[in-house]
Amino acid sequence: MLIIIIKDMKTLFKNARILKMTDENIIIGHLLVKDDRIAYIGSELPEDKDIDEIIDCDGNLLMPGFKNAHTHSAMSFLRSKTDDHTLQDWLFNVVLPREALLQPGDVYELAKISFLEYLSGGITACFDMYYSPLESAKAAEEMGMRITLCGTYNKDFDMVKKLYRELNEKDGLVRYCLCVHAEYTLGEGELENIVDACHELHAPFFAHISETETEVKECIAKRGMTPVAYFEKMGAFDYGGGGYHCCWFTDEDIQIFKRHNCSVVTCPGSNTKLASGIAPICKYLENGINVAIGTDGPASNNSLDMFKEMTLTYALQKVTLRDPTALPAFELLKMATVNGAKAIGLKDCDTLEVGKKADIIEIDLKQPNMQPINNIINNIVYSGTKENVILTMINGKILYRDGKYLINEDISSIYEKCAKIGERIEKGLLDK
Amino acid sequence: MLIIIIKDMKTLFKNARILKMTDENIIIGHLLVKDDRIAYIGSELPEDKDIDEIIDCDGNLLMPGFKNAHTHSAMSFLRSKTDDHTLQDWLFNVVLPREALLQPGDVYELAKISFLEYLSGGITACFDMYYSPLESAKAAEEMGMRITLCGTYNKDFDMVKKLYRELNEKDGLVRYCLCVHAEYTLGEGELENIVDACHELHAPFFAHISETETEVKECIAKRGMTPVAYFEKMGAFDYGGGGYHCCWFTDEDIQIFKRHNCSVVTCPGSNTKLASGIAPICKYLENGINVAIGTDGPASNNSLDMFKEMTLTYALQKVTLRDPTALPAFELLKMATVNGAKAIGLKDCDTLEVGKKADIIEIDLKQPNMQPINNIINNIVYSGTKENVILTMINGKILYRDGKYLINEDISSIYEKCAKIGERIEKGLLDK
Lengths: 432, 432
What we know:
The structure is a homodimer.
Chain A: E1 10-19, E2 26-34, E3 37-42, E4 53-56, E5 61-64, E6 66-71, H1 87-99, H2 106-120, E7 123-128, H3 133-143, E8 146-150, H4 157-170, E9 174-182, H5 190-201, E10 205-209, H6 213-223, H7 227-233, E11 241-245, H8 251-259, E12 263-266, H9 268-273, H10 281-286, E13 290-293, H11 306-321, H12 329-336, H13 338-344, E14 360-363, H14 376-383, E15 389-394, E16 397-401, E17 404-405, H15 411-431
Parallel strand pairs in A: 1-4, 1-5, 6-7, 7-8, 8-9, 9-10, 10-11, 11-12, 12-13
Antiparallel strand pairs in A: 1-2, 2-3, 5-14, 14-15, 15-16, 16-17
Helix pairs in contact in A: 2-3, 2-15, 4-5, 11-12, 12-14
């Protein structure tokens, strides 16, 4: 494989509308990227001479990339294999028997399809939970995707701590976070070990939490308390963190999250498709909790599209609260960008400001669903689609532009490898 | 304006997957369009020699275009002007004062932005309700869009009957249907006149029906019965028809619709954004009612995107019924295509069969959200977006391909004219 290292690359976006996401204001001007960071934003053209690439935005919008705060990227091979099933049937009869046939190297290949989908939809970072996280990391680094790994499936806790220190100190595309899958799948001593690690590292803690009503009921029956209360009791949230899904929080759970400054990652695409429930997002926000958005994986959603997730998030809140004023557009856009960055712990690529990492997307305002330009933020949230994303830059590198992927690998070869893995797994099931 | 009339045009789509929508089967083969109709579908290449255009689909999917069974296309000027308001505030303080300032010719210009959005998302027909319907008709005919007009706002009932006869006999792109806006906005004698016309013409009848709970409650208080029961009592459904929205039907309303073979047009984008309610779609289907999907207009949705509407339709049913098996993918695709055609009365462009009108879209299966190809129908419904539509043909003419509009008008000029109308209206409000 050919890896080209480009040094001191300067890219100038000129004639842009710029939504920094520090507030709702949109400024008109130019933005310069030097290497991996934003070097200049202003109404005058920068004075730099040796610019490598000039992109005329012609009035289009630049904004921070979307942050997908919960996913299982490598589950791409299960897309459209597991629909219209009950949750039990989905997990035990479709997903788990196939996952048991995954081989080393598969996750590396399978994650790539999802990364392509992120790029085409303006998602510049993902918080990824799956087996063999270092394979996903390798695929992400090679493609240029920003990823934070959940060290869930690694039971070697010394290795977990080593990876946490090494990857987060390196400050590259790949970061690492401490997680367990969920309360209801905890192994003997697993939580205690992870909590010890969290305490040692001063690290936040994440898990699937209160995704279904059954999960909460069974936890109460077994432990006398909700999953949130149990995690708190065990000290898991002593350095913050959060939960994925969070559909069935009690008022006490909300207070626990508030107390520990935890984030809720809502996944309405998955929660509706699997009929898990509707998270009370407005209640979380009213209580000052940071709410981010995740797509969940391609086996349960099945798309990896932040526009779809924003739509479902506002739709479910407005209609169930019977209040069309609930969750206005800018709140949604914050959840999909800066709140996501906060949940994932990405302090350096959340907004468009000088000195921040250049994780930038360009929104085409010249497509009919973005016209007329009465209110750009509302256009993006209420009538936007991923088709409007015409450029995705991560860490200063343009990885997607006008429907083309600027990566070092042939797209059809990625598809073919994934199809072959799927075929091998199906054959393996039949051979059993 | 230049109008080019092309005769005996032959377009061959080769190497395609073809979903006829007569059932779930997808065949592999070739499809020939001669003039405005499908002339051949088969696994061997057709023998025709003088083919004007050959499109190599390279394994992509051809399917019937989506039918948008309820919209107000020309409300494009109000997109993102009216969000996060209560319904009363939305209608009386934002929408109506601006609509009062519309001038002749405005609707003609304003409808075009929405038609472009339909084309880019594979919507090949719309059931359109707005003031000055003949202006929308003119814009549709010029662009090549298929439209059925609701003769709602024309109080000249002789003209309504004349248009109904003339336009429906002509069998062109423009058709005509008898409607009232809603029970709660009926003028003196309006319903009686429209019902007389329905009886004289043996015509179906449509209206916004039971969109909000308030509408139903007020109708019961005023007339002692629901809007559906009132319309039935007045004879409006004697030749069938249906309702837009239909969120709050009683069991008796369902039986009335069943008895008269009426269609429900659900608009979940609008109903969630305005917090109107969740239509019980599965209950309607269980009762054998034809259910179609509409986007509603760009002022209340705000997008005109059948993928978004399919998503909201299944999401709301699965999660509120707490049943992930509810409303499986093919049901959704039927609602978005053949059921829509049935509701609108389009008998000739509902499926891909020889002799049918060529209203065809091509779905790009080589985008990452369509990979791997485990199940194409599920891919379209659960992970598809309008970005996957790479070609839209209406009546045998390709009007959209690879992001470009093949129409006789400059897109930016359409945007500019609409922006100017919006500015004039805002200025008019200030001058008041």
